[in-house]
Amino acid sequence: MSNAPSTTGVIELDAQFPDQDFILINGEEFPAKAVADTTQWPGGSMSGSTRRGRAIVQNVTSPRGWDERKGYAITGATLIPTGNPLADFSIRFEFWDPADMPPWYSFAAKYFDESVRFDPGTQTPRALGIFHPVLAAPPIRITQVVVTNATGIEKDDTGLHFCEVSFKRYRKLKQAQAAPAAAIPAAASSQPTAQDAADLEIQQLMKQYGLLAGPVQ
User: Fold this and answer.
1) How far is Cα of residue 49 from the mean position of the Cα atoms in its chain?
2) Which tens digit of pLDDT belongs to each residue from 149-198?
3) How far apart are CA 47 and CA 56, in angstroms?
4) Looking at residue 102, what DSSP letter applies?
5) What is the sign of the dihedral through the CA atoms of 175, 145, 134 and 149?
6) d(CA 217, CA 215)
7) C-alpha distances in angstroms, 92 versus 3, 58, 95, 152, 163?
8) What is the distance between the alpha carbons of residues 116 and 145, in angstroms, rounded to a whole number?
9) For burial by CB atoms within 10 Å, which of 96, 177, 213, 217 has the most?
10) pTM passes above 0.85
11) Which domains does the chain have, with CATH numbers?
12) What Å distances lie between residue 56 and 31, 117, 133, 157, 188, CA to CA?
């Protein structure tokens, strides 16, 4: 399959999607390809793999930002776009042969180490280009990330070695859209009369956000 987006903005998917067992960081594949391996490991499922390990994308989401503003004695609410939160997800790296550890440590030192957290000589986060079909396809569309956490290598009861690296989507700040027009129509009924300073202040705020019709009493 092609690693580049198609001209329509939707990546081309093949029979491996979404089970692609490697990722690309800044264009570098990991785990790298290896000769066909028919060695059985305790879990069994890695037999015949053409890679010395695998990378599994986990818990990826695409959160959307909305501020829900409720009015006084009004059913419903106004939704104000606040800008989308930055998505968090993790990648689990699995290895079934201790001989595969050295390539992992070299790759991790190059891209995930604390020493490469910032661009050289600055406090600017070093964004990493990332590609995996699960991340690149709609509606996720994550192409740049920063590292937020990493675990050490562990070994499970089957003999499988694994670790996890956590990421946060990197996206430059940009202006959020304006509030949806006429989300809640102006009320046609009579409005409550302010009985004290607190009620008057509430009505003034409601008027400011277009939730009341007519002058504040």
Assistant:
1) 29
2) 999 999 999 989 999 999 999 988 776 566 555 555 554 445 544 445 55
3) 17
4) H
5) negative
6) 6
7) 21, 7, 10, 11, 6
8) 13
9) 96
10) no
11) 23-169 (2.40.30), 185-217 (no CATH)
12) 11, 23, 11, 19, 56
